Amino acid sequence: MTYNVSVLVGSLRRESYARKIALSCLDYFPDAIDAKIVEIGHLPLYNFDYDDPSVTDVSTPDSYTQFRATIKNSDGVLFVTSENNRTIPAYLKNAIDIGSKPNSDVAWKGLPAGIISHSVGRMGGYSSQKNLRLALSYFDMPTLGQPEIFLGQSPTLIDKDRLAPERTVAFVRDYITRFSELVTTTAGSRL
């Protein structure tokens, strides 16, 4: 059996450290997991009118419908994000909001979530990860308690567009292994 993991990157910049970390993580998943980056930068800002049945002159964007279907067809979600102004980037929050509606059909409900945060400073995106965990807890998304992955001084951890220090690679690889186990054990209970 193959399990699907959607990877959401919390930075729009093509050369972002978050994207480079996420690309590295794709290589760490076991063969039974098909992990892919799901692009979210094109999603229009969330507006409840799109999902309000009483508003008849506005249609739900196709990109919302496709994104929600992708998340619902996932067996888990890995978030790899930077920190912006002590919280998650706005467009990552936008994607979370889009997946949270309509209330009767939340895409995130019960999906295992992995979180890797980073920052160019020493804190490793601590605030962004805590804010993201808070948002995801509302959807009853199981997450690993330990270890939490805060990658500080992220520019020093990248070499040729990949995670490079052996110790960091081993640490993140172990996290991906443990997250993969959470995905495979949780997948059957969501059916």
From TrEMBL:
Signal peptide: none annotated. One of its GO terms (cellular component) is cytosol. GO terms for molecular function: FMN binding; oxidoreductase activity. Residues 4-153 form the NADPH-dependent FMN reductase-like domain. InterPro entries: Flavoprotein-like_sf, FMN_Rdtase-like_dom, NAD(P)H-dep_reductase. It comes from the Bacteria. It holds the Pfam family FMN_red. PANTHER family: CHROMATE REDUCTASE, NAD(P)H-DEPENDENT FMN REDUCTASE LOT6. This is NAD(P)H-dependent oxidoreductase. It comes from Corynebacterium yudongzhengii.
